[in-house]
Amino acid sequence: MSARTTPSATVGPYLAIGLTWDDGPSAVEPGTPGAIWLRGRVLDGAGEVVPDAMVETWQADPDGRFDHPDDPRGARARPGFRGFGRSHTDSGEYAVCTLKPGRVPDGEGGLQAPHVDVSVFARGLLDRVVTRIYFADEAEANAEDPVLRSVPADRRGTLIAQPTDDGYRLDIRLQGDGETVFFAL
Amino acid sequence: MTGMTTPSGLVLPRYPRPGAEALTPVGFPDYRSTASRAPLLAPVDLPQRLTEVTGPLLGEGRVTAADADLTRQHEGEPQGQRIIVHGRVLDGDGRPVPDTLVEIWQANAGGRYRHVVDNWPSPLDPNFTGLGRTITDGQGRYRFTTIKPGAYPWGNHHNAWRPAHIHFSLFGRAFTQRLVTQMYFPDDPLFFQDPIFGAIPGSARHLAISRFDYEQTQDNWALAFSWDIVLRGSGQTPFESDDDGDVA
Q1: DSSP string across B102-124
Q2: Domain membership flag for residue B13
Q3: What average pLDDT does the segment B194-214 reach?
Q4: B167 is catalytic
Q5: Which of A73, A126, A129, A131 to mutate to test the interface with B (most CBs of B within 10 A)?
Q6: DSSP B69
Q7: Domain containing A81: what range?
Q8: pLDDT (tens digit, 9 = 90+) per residue, A71-105?
Q9: Could you give the number of structural domains in chain B?
Q10: Which domain holds residue B123?
Q11: Contact B153/B159 with Cβ under 8 angstroms?
Q12: Digit-coded pLDDT (tens) for B126-175
């Protein structure tokens, strides 16, 4: 039996009621050795900060493994690591505490560069938009990553987070100059 | 399991993208907020790899049984029509999605949200927060007790009113299946002027509308509405060959 997919709708302006978790931003417990913060603003087409978005992240652990039964290498849990983070932008930016992911097989015999899958939800978006975060200090891995290579060279920079004192920073531009590369899944 | 084999021999589930006739566009001109927020450039195709076919398996410890009853979260009961909202979470093959987190949020009976930016002149209800959570059972079923939310004005256009709706957030088992949507009620007279409902392709709009379910009403207690939610599924022949002809 096949069934038709339920259509998406916007989270609207009141998403904070339903989607707030006290531990939402903690893909890993803050204070865990090696923990980093991923931070950035979400900007609209006028360059204004979007204060009512939610950014969700999903990623492999530092060994490139997932705690998930559909990983054909086997599920591997890392204590204290959820791999998933969600952060509102009501402070002006998103902030997720996590571990830097390892490289993950690309399914074609190679390895993907370390990356984080990202969903952005907001009033004004009738479906989530999906992007990735890569890391500027992984230039060699980034150069051979099949997803980055599929993106026009002059737009790859929109996916690459820059190192900061406590992690990495990447702004997400929903629209306009320097529009972030979004992906169709 | 249904899946595809990559050239390096990894067997992955697959979640094909539905056609445009089934997808709400990210931007829709009649919904004014999309004008400065919806991306203008075409998205880049992302073949589904390990990160996309896995996802957070949330639930354990995230919810209690009480989280599924929005009428019991305060000392008194909220105003409004008590209703049961129930259904199943399925994938595109019609298979249940068990043990998955379902989060809902909604306005109160007067159409007011408990949120700092909602200040239209309809009262808050001290006995209603409007937040519910549950985990689907082994057959993919979910069930909430709540009150029917009211319609409310929102300024998108002159005399704009949102049809009554409940927001739903679902994870499924893969990043690719993530869904945030809104459930509507049957025969709402406000559909015609609502661009958030109207943005859904015409042939898919009925999929966002719940069904009045007399069978599940409770005598002397509550009305009931039924709504099944379908996440992306495989919709594919098991072990179908990959593009390069590599077969599991």
Answers
A1: EEEE---TTS--SSTT--SSS--
A2: no
A3: 98
A4: yes
A5: A126
A6: B
A7: 36-173
A8: 999 999 999 999 999 999 999 999 999 999 999 99
A9: 1
A10: 24-36+58-230
A11: yes
A12: 999 999 999 999 999 999 999 999 999 999 999 999 999 999 999 999 99
Q: Hey, are the CB atoms on A5 and B92 less than 8 Å from each other?
A: yes
B1-35 pLDDT, tens digit per residue, is 456 676 666 788 889 999 989 999 999 999 999 99
A20 falls within a domain = no
CATH number at residue B105: 2.60.130.10
* pLDDT one-digit tens code per residue, A46-76: 999 999 999 999 999 999 999 999 999 999 9
Please check whether residue A2 lies inside any domain of the structure.
Answer: no
- On chain A, the residues whose CB falls within 8 A of the CB of B26 are 125-127, 129
Option in B38, B50, B207 nearest A71 (CB): B50
Under 8 Å between Cβ of A40 and A118? no
Q: Is B86 labeled as catalytic in the residue annotation?
A: no
What is the C-alpha separation between A54 and B132, in angstroms, rounded?
Answer: 18
How many Cα atoms are found within 13 Å in the side-chain-facing hemisphere of A137?
A: 9
Name residue B26's amino acid.
V
Domain membership of residue A62 (yes or no) is: yes
Does any domain span residue B110? yes
Question: CA B22 to CA A171: how far, in whole Å?
Answer: 31
Residue B38 is predicted with a pLDDT of 98
Say which CATH number the domain at A123 has: 2.60.130.10
Residue given tokens 């920073």 in the structure block: A169
Measured between beta carbons, the chain A residues lying within 8 angstroms of B208 are 6-7, 9
CB contact under 8 A, A72 and B176: no
Does any domain span residue B113?
Answer: yes
Structural domain count of chain A: 1
A105 lies in a domain?
Answer: yes
Residues of A in contact with B12 (CB under 8 A): 70, 72, 107
The pTM of the full predicted model, rounded to 2 decimals, is 0.95
Q: Are B199 and A183 an interchain contact pair (Cβ–Cβ within 8 Å)?
A: no
Could you tell me if residue B48 is inside a domain? no
